[in-house]
Amino acid sequence: MIPPHSPPLASPALRQWEEQGELLLPLTFLLLVLGSLLLYLAVSLMDPGYVNVLLQPQEEAKEEQTAMVPQAIPLRRCRYCMVLQPLRARHCRECRRCVRRYDHHCPWMENCVGERNHPLFVAYLALQLVVLLWGLYLAWSGLRFFRPWGLWLRSSGLLFATFLLLLLFSLVASLLLASHLYLVASNTTTWEFIASHRIAYLRQRPGNPFDRGLTRNLAHFFCGWPSGSWETLWAEEEEGSSQDV
């Protein structure tokens, strides 16, 4: 029989846990999961940096600016979109659009990762890794090993399988985050890193013409500073290398 005054005791217990700060960690974990979900939706739904098919008046100046690039690297016109591709842009067959500073097409996001959403993608990887590591710790702390192993497997097998799954996802997220941080630090993209031998503006240069040093690369990637087109930067590097010669 349930005591008649047992329900009111739950409220003081919750208040006591809140005063002791024991509710802070679960709430923080839920906020991290919510933030990860919001970042996922932002990356998957936003414009990754599509090249406009119809040039707007303010973009005509950009096209004139790109014409200043040395003719050794002619700007290409996409054979699918028939638009003039800026440097570092590439056509995505899944999205059927050209994307500025194309990195890759993510099947899990169902969207391209490009100039506009790449910083949010890196932030999503970092936050997702924190959530996975936290869940990994919770799963490990709940495991209690004892014999016989058959009885332990029946009582803790599902939790152990969850731990292994979280461990696998954590390793994948760690590798993805580390690789993207390396690419960001050197101001290159996944596509440029994999296919540099196929890209004209990289094939003719021994190094990365867009690398401005670690600090400036990170500042430009996350804050958009210093501003400027990739065509202008490439032309400046080309002039500097020709003067050195």
From TrEMBL:
<feature type="domain" description="Palmitoyltransferase DHHC">
    <location>
        <begin position="76"/>
        <end position="195"/>
    </location>
</feature>
<feature type="transmembrane region" description="Helical">
    <location>
        <begin position="121"/>
        <end position="146"/>
    </location>
</feature>
<keyword id="KW-0012">Acyltransferase</keyword>
<feature type="transmembrane region" description="Helical">
    <location>
        <begin position="23"/>
        <end position="43"/>
    </location>
</feature>
<dbReference type="GO" id="GO:0006612">
    <property type="term" value="P:protein targeting to membrane"/>
</dbReference>
<keyword id="KW-0564">Palmitate</keyword>
<dbReference type="InterPro" id="IPR039859">
    <property type="entry name" value="PFA4/ZDH16/20/ERF2-like"/>
</dbReference>
<protein>
    <recommendedName>
        <fullName>Palmitoyltransferase</fullName>
        <ecNumber>2.3.1.225</ecNumber>
    </recommendedName>
</protein>
<dbReference type="GO" id="GO:0005783">
    <property type="term" value="C:endoplasmic reticulum"/>
</dbReference>
<keyword id="KW-0449">Lipoprotein</keyword>
<keyword id="KW-0472">Membrane</keyword>
<keyword id="KW-1133">Transmembrane helix</keyword>
<dbReference type="GO" id="GO:0019706">
    <property type="term" value="F:protein-cysteine S-palmitoyltransferase activity"/>
</dbReference>
<dbReference type="GO" id="GO:0005794">
    <property type="term" value="C:Golgi apparatus"/>
</dbReference>
<feature type="transmembrane region" description="Helical">
    <location>
        <begin position="158"/>
        <end position="183"/>
    </location>
</feature>
<comment type="similarity">
    <text>Belongs to the DHHC palmitoyltransferase family.</text>
</comment>
<dbReference type="InterPro" id="IPR001594">
    <property type="entry name" value="Palmitoyltrfase_DHHC"/>
</dbReference>
<dbReference type="Pfam" id="PF01529">
    <property type="entry name" value="DHHC"/>
</dbReference>
<keyword id="KW-0808">Transferase</keyword>
<keyword id="KW-0812">Transmembrane</keyword>
